[in-house]
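Supplementary material to the annual report.
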Amino acid sequence: MDMYFKFGEAKAGRRLFEGMVVRDVVSWNTLVSGYSLCGDVDAARCVFDQMEEKNLVTWSTMVTGYARVGKLDVARWFFDVMPERNVVSWNAIIAGYAQNDKYSEAIDLFYQMLEVGDGGRGRRVKPNDVTLVSVLSSCAHLGALDFGKRIDRFINRNKMELNVFLGNALADMFAKCGCVEECKRVFEKMRERDVISWSIIISGFAMYGQVEEAFGYFLKMLECRVKPNEITFMGLLSACTHAGMVEKGLECFNQMENEYGVAPKVEHYGCVVDLLSRAGCLNDAEDMINAMPIRPNAIVWGALLGGCRIHKDVSRGVRVVQRILEINSDHSGSYVYLANVYASMGRLDDAAICRLRMRDNCVKRTPGCSWIEVNNTVHEFFMGDRSHPLTDRIYLMLSELGTRLKLAGYEPKTELVVHNVHEEEKEDALFTHSEKLAIAFGLISTSHGTTIRIVKNLRVCIDCHEATKIISKIVSREIIVRDRSRFHLFKDGKCSCNDYW
DNA sequence: ATAGGGTTAG
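Predicted assembly:
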């Protein structure tokens, strides 16, 4: 019966169930999980409501079913009211949160799992490898290295075997938390590796712009006769993008289909357009979009727009904005670009109209956010944020940094700030960027010489990048920033990205 | 027998 459901044959599964002479709770559960597997939670719920005898499995199935379709509140309700819970029920709800991008909540629940167990009789439930996979994946997304390291110690202390799932999750956590060497160590230690393991280590090196290592592992992967997939090639292509290696990237793009039989998807085109655009090959980038066999999305055009901004190609930029707004009228980057172009030409009225249009369409820019983990707590900062308990000391540190930065020759890069404020206000706006707040907090709350690790949701801005380089020198600290697509290692006044990002 | 897990451009 579950075979039918696995192949999406819900009706056949149901017919088989109807024909059964003796039905026990297991056959009912199979029916419920079958519907849930096909994505039809409502049907699963309907069966659930008809069942007279329910057990742990029935309840857990409902938790998974609702989580799978993104109805987390309902999943949580089932989890909260179920009469007893075992490790699988906990895993179901934790995975549900993690898979719906609620990483902090997933980790909170993991803590609760350790504390309360099944809730009813106070019996503790011990996490297993499946639990840790979801928790590690959440750490990876949050960049929560300290917490990830504790999970690593838990694995070692309990002598848990690094199976391919757990090993992959652990290696990916290290890669995404700024420790490629640890990622490598885990990868080498794993007894079994699949295409996902190889893709993780390749994109791990890609995030640091280490092309040689990324392609080195690609060659080893081929030697081990593991077939690369579309995600492996995303890793390789983004390695080329992060290092500005146009020729190698194009070669890789051509080979993926011709030699390895992996058809490029819109994501791969996006990556190559980004590669060409950053390098200033705007004609080639635009030609590539126009010749694509699949429909370009707003992200592909957005990559070209980014290049127009870097290389100040205004006329192409305005043309690209039109194409983006045709596809997605909510694209905040386009409005901001256009407004800045008008403003820089002195057409302030047009700039204002553009911003009004953005507001009328209720387009919101994603607010910049940075966070830093200190003593197992994640501290989050937004631009101009004054909500942190240590705000006074943070701003004191910021102004001290400001003075020392200017002495060291730093000049605020105000050109990209909105154009209707005074020069001094622009500088203030720059100086309270979330990234600088997080760095200032890191400086006052960690001991001298400690590496500061920041994670941010957007790409690092040019001014923060310049400022962070100098800060790393004047305070003699390594500062590691993970932005939305790569790592920057600031040390002694320089950044590992060589100012290419 | 029936429930739980990892990688993807901007």
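The longest helix of chain A spans residues 391-407.
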